[in-house]
Amino acid sequence: MQIPAVVVACLSAGCAVALLLAVLWPRQHRRVTDARRQADAARVETRTLRGQLAEAGRRERMMVEEVGHLTTTRLPALAKALRHPHVRVPEPLHPPLAETSGGQALEAVLSEVSRAVVGERRRVDGAAQAAMRGATTKLQTMCYQVQTTVDELLHKYDDPELAERLAGLDYLNEQILRRLQVTRVVCGAGAGLVRTKSPLRALVTGASSRIPSYERVQIVDHLPEPIAVADRAAEPVAIMVAELLANAVHHSHGTLPVEVSLHQAHNGAVVVINDAGIGMNAEEFTKARKLLAGTGETFLAELGDPPSSGFAAIGQLCRQYGVSVSVEPSHYAGVKAVVFVPSELLTAVSEEDQPPIPAPLSRPMPPPAMPPPTEQLPVPAPPVVSTRPATPANPVAPTTQPVPPGPPAPPAPRTGAGDPTVAPPGGVPGGVPPLPQRRNRRTGPSPEQLPPERGQAEYLRDPQEAAARMGALQRGTAQGRAAGVSGPGFRASDGPASEDESERDNR
Prior knowledge:
By secondary structure, the chain is of the alpha+beta class. It has helices at 5-83, 101-156, 160-186, 200-208, 231-250, 282-293, 310-321, 463-483, 497-505; strands spanning 198-199, 217-221, 227-229, 258-265, 268-274, 324-329, 335-342, 346-348. Strands 2-4-5-7-6 form a five-stranded mixed β-sheet. Strand 6 (324-329) and strand 7 form a beta hairpin.
């Protein structure tokens, strides 16, 4: 059977097509597979890009919220925390951002703002302290001029009422000086006053005269022997004690005493101040101890309005001079303050350096021409005392006590060979004064010589009493000069000069 040519042609064409397809199909299949693979990868990448876009949008919203949280919450809290350490700065609103570059940038902004704020506060506070130092220096100088003028007026005029007014003015001036000194110390200046070495008891007594309600201060001396504070630390110690006494008096009832005791320590001396006031809570004690340590910076803005600068000034002085001050609750539910003065700042007190204890009995008496004895201080036996120690360079006869008008009093009998108030047996008759005798510089009687009913309380003095007696002394002196009464060797300068100088030293 013969196959038609047409069929052969068709079979040839089909074979050719099949051969062509067999050759081209794998390539086309590979292309299709690659295309499908690329499409799948494109779909995956599209989904990834869409996720990343969504994450970027979420992070953008978180960053916007974090920036708003930084500006509205964290920065104001940071400014408060720089003034008040107990204030906490809030944490970031979204903690996951802290590990990102954006979160780290925000933390860097917070640190730079803190550094800038502290630097600006130092600059502003330094300018304010400089202005305060300049102002207080001029005011302190003026107050010392007022003090000198008051002293001159006390010596110039004999009016007792004027003397009392001037004493009150001097007392007010002392309180102003105390506030000026504290402000100067807080602002980085010194006390503005340099004194010689002073007995610790005299410093505490002088500090009590700078505060209101000084009569409530009760000082008890437990020192085995008198000690003095070195000249460079005398005034700073007086400032510290005065501020602690002012706090004790201010925060306790007006009828309650403030107890002050002086003690000897192994390597220094201690002044303990106890009050029965309102006390302090735990936070106040913590703040007070931090200020008293004097280790950190002190900004005027941190001291309140008005500034409570007492503890801050004490802390500055403690850091400069090595004195330590601590506060704790007292047994009376108040505050107990302990001032420790190291032995490096203490020195022994010689008998010549001891100032006379301010007591009514140790006052020099005026000449006999005096007003009625009711204005004079009653003096116990012996009836004859010496107002000043005699010196060989300027012999001075011992003066006698004023007596009421009448017959002259008989001479006092001799009480013993060691009595410096009695003339020696070798005195020349005829009223010639005896030779000067060496005696103790302390002119006042000891507490053992006082009658039992007279206690230590009479050795205390207030400005009103001092002013009245000073006026009586000056009035008597003027009357004596007018009457032409002057004993052998009597000098007007032998009267109140030495006592007034001791009073100035105790201020």
